[in-house]
Amino acid sequence: MTPARILVVDDEYGVRSGIRQILEIEGYEVDEAATGEEALALLDKAEYDVAFLDYRLPDIDGLTILQNIKDGGLQLMTCMITAYANIDTAIAATRQGVDFFLPKPFLPDDLLGVAETLVRHKQARTEAERLRREHEASLLELAEEKTQTHSLISSLRDAVLVINRDGEVVLANRAMTVLLGMEESETLRHPAAELLGEGPLAPLVEQLAAPQKDRTIGQLTLGERTYMTSIVTFRADDGAALGRILTLSDISQIRRVAMEKERFIRTMVHELKSPLGAVRSLIEVVTDKSLGDDIESYLPMLSRAENRIDNLVQLIGDLLSLSRSEQARGQTEPELLEVEPVVSAALDAQSERLAARHLTAQMEVEPDLPPVLMPAGDLDLILSNLVGNAVKYNRDGGSVTVQAVHDGEWVRIDVKDTGIGIAEENLFLVLTEFFREKRPETRDLEGSGLGLAIVKSLAERAGGRLEIKSELGQGSTFSVLLPA
Amino acid sequence: MSHPWSILFVDDDRDFLDAQVAYFGSRGHTVHTTESTQETLDFLEAQVPDIIFLDLMMERYDSGFRLAYQIRKQERLDKTPIVMLSGVARETGERFDQEGQGLLTWSRLDRFVDKPVTGRQLLAVAEELLAHGDAEPNPSTDDPSS
Hints:
Chain A is an alpha/beta fold. Chain A is 46% helix and 23% strand. Chain A is built from 15 helices and 17 strands.
């Protein structure tokens, strides 16, 4: 520990140096000042732990020095030395914050006793000050943390309501006040039961009031949205309940996806089982010899069984395409693709079926059409699906037209047929996986019901969309819009 | 088999229907087929079969139940056994089964059979359900329009 520094202020040389010698022997570091001015100059320059001040000085009196020490916020301990100690001086000095009086004349032991006491006090005071500053800093940190936590909670998408043990609201974040249709100021310090009881969250009041459970999870539907509700009791270290936190998480999207998936799987199971069931029944006719011993009689049925198996294989292929288009985002690199060769290839692939149905095909690709950015396989799949549909759902002798134009920020590819069309009420449904219009015209047309779902998903993955225009009995136009 | 039955198959899968026509036909039974709710109701206006095999999923996922309910509402079809064929009961699990149980009672179905199903299985079901009916064949099957 560094030795304590002491300042001795006295105009009498003998007293000054006497005090100094005694203190230095005891290991203190000592500076002297003969006048008030000198004293103030030294106090300005260095830090002292203790100052011995003579009351009477030639220029400035001791009280003024005390005043300066006080005003400067200096932390040193002070002792007034005076030969004329009287009650008035004592009162005045005490007002200026002096810590001790040492009347002249005094013995060296008296001086040392006072010095020791004051140095100890000073050290205690310094330590207290250090602790106070530390405390202040941590309070500051705490306040900052509190602000951060508050803004964090405010910006949460989940709605949060915190109530104290008296059931009063101590925090309601933005999402919560929006749900309640109130301002935050309207909620604070109000009984939660009262606030919720009047609003859409009324069903939660009972749960909030049941403190026996530490965690209650539930579900609440508000309008079109579904929320997972959670009520948690928070406790002090000794286990006493301090309050409860209510959170509402919007799970509408998750629920919708889960329900869609369930529906998809249910339908997929049906779509896979139907052809299997048919094939099984057709084979049973053979093994049962239902049609007699002539194998020729069974050929039509076996050929139908083969057909169903082919379609099943196609369905599985489509399922894979769909699952790839929905999940394998980023696995295949998009590239800049010219539209014309892809359209041309899609039409070529259908040439046999076009000829068989006496369909005419037309391709009109605008010159200087900008390329589109997507994986090559995706554009192939889009066009082969749409052109395939245009052939499948056409009337004999009709036409298939593919037009590609630059339309503002889009490259727009229209695939137009002169076929059976789609009933207006089914325009959206045809985009649903497995949906197929059941009409006499579609009776004998095979299909997985996945083609348009695949096209839509691939177009959206490339940042585009699929549009459908159709007139029953006249034909349909499927437009894929892709970012130019 | 004491006498041939008149069987109605309601399903929208033509391959399945034709296979049943061959299978049951080779055993001397008369097999009628319909492919939609409306076609079925029209057919039942004209005649009453001995047994109806009804596919659950046609126009809608529950078309079969609705149709069964409509059939049961008619007094003259009150006693005709209805066997519901469905490919979804097992896969969709408990929830459908619970619902299905209620619907079975509600639509007064006689049997619930999981698809895919063989003609042999359906034959066994028909034999069981029609065992008691053999003594008194349904008079409506003699309808001249059949």
